[in-house]
Write a structure and sequence with these properties.
The complex is a heterodimer of chains A (about 290) and B (about 140).
Chain A (H helix, E strand, L loop, with lengths): L3 H55 L16 E7 L9 H18 L3 E7 L1 H10 L3 E5 L8 H16 L5 E9 L5 E9 L16 E3 L2 H75 L1
Parallel strand pairs in A: 1-2, 1-4, 2-3
Antiparallel strand pairs in A: 4-5
Helix pairs in contact in A: 1-5, 4-5
Chain B lengths: L3 E7 L2 E8 L1 E6 L2 E5 L6 E13 L5 E14 L2 E6 L6 H18 L9 H22 L5
Parallel strand pairs in B: 1-7
Antiparallel strand pairs in B: 1-2, 3-4, 3-5, 5-6, 6-7
The chains are: A alpha/beta (about 290), B alpha+beta (about 140).
Chain lengths: ~290, ~140
Amino acid sequence: MPGSKEIRTKIKSVKNTQKITRAMEKVAMSKMRKAQDRMAQARPYAEKIRRTLGHIAQANAEYVHPFMVERPAKRVGLIIITSDRGLAGGLNVNTFRVALKALREYKDKNVDVELALIGNKAVAYFKRLGGNVTATQTHLGDRPHLDQLLGVIKVMTDAYREGRIDRLQLVSSTFVNTMTQRPQLRQLLPVEPVQDDKLLAHWDYIYEPTPAGLLDFVLQRYIESQVYQAVIENAACEQSARMVAMKSATDNAGKIITNLQTVYNKARQASITKEISEIVGGAAAV
Amino acid sequence: MASIHVDIVSAEGQIHSGEAQMVFAPAEMGEVGIAPRHTPLLTKLVPGAVRVKAIDGSEQSFFVGGGILEVQPHLVTVLADSALRAKDADEAAALAAKQSAEEKLAGAKGDIDLAKAQAELIEAAARLQFVQKLKNPSHR
């Protein structure tokens, strides 16, 4: 039976691959649930700090913080968030596409861009392509913590304070649902005003000790929470993208196995038919 | 009895939410006690315990490693830091982020090769599309 052994080996190897992709799918599925939980847990803080910021914007503060003032953008900071690992379908490619579009637009306007990269994939990508990278953070693991991100955030907010950049933006994937992740460019600095029309009266806080120091503190925390939110959202995106990618890989392996099985059966049938006809031919000759 | 709503949250999760008679918090200028209809206040917190006296008189304490306290007449928001934070720790983290950038990108050139990036993206997109077609041959 010519070639049948090769086909059998091939089927076996595809089956092994299928086992791996199926296991990865299951792992990604359970990790995705946890990542989504973490996303939900971080939401209250983001909402509350946004509300506080809205209140501050409403209050007639005599002090306007530089984080809230729009300046002409001569240099821009861009934080790019990707996953650490691959095999996640088009997730990182889509993020890079959005980032690259922004980079191209800035280049056309002669605006310099300073990059801060979070995630191995972004670091590897910009290592190959070049770019003015000032800060990186990788190996966040499945449970990213805020303290892992503080360094990168501080580099960028300090750059803004010192006037080295006039705008700070963030590119990351946003979680729409399990099947859909959308890469998005968001502005972090200057902070866009938050509207809260429940409190319209003229009033102000008692600030202890000084409005300047407090606003600075609140705004810094706000930026940190925004970046943290984006990172854990990206982690949830990574797991769901991987789950979908691995599911389709498992399905494809199944299809390949069916096809190979058909080929194998045909070959076997052909060899049996051939043998029979040889026997019959031999018998007739006797 | 008048009550005030208390929310204690940290970046990594909600810690407490509920009504209270009185809230005590370790503010930077000394501990503050907040009763309902307190005047709006915004202050920094130092590491310590936030104590919440619930409507039924029971008291609960929550440790915070610093953060922000915002008071509105009917609302107390404690934005707790998830970790103890020292100023030099932040500086050190910033330095580490900068260094890792220099190490990892050693040898990369300063300008982004946009043309190369574009070409790679197009290739990656084509590959994705191809896989999609393999998956559903009907949607050609």
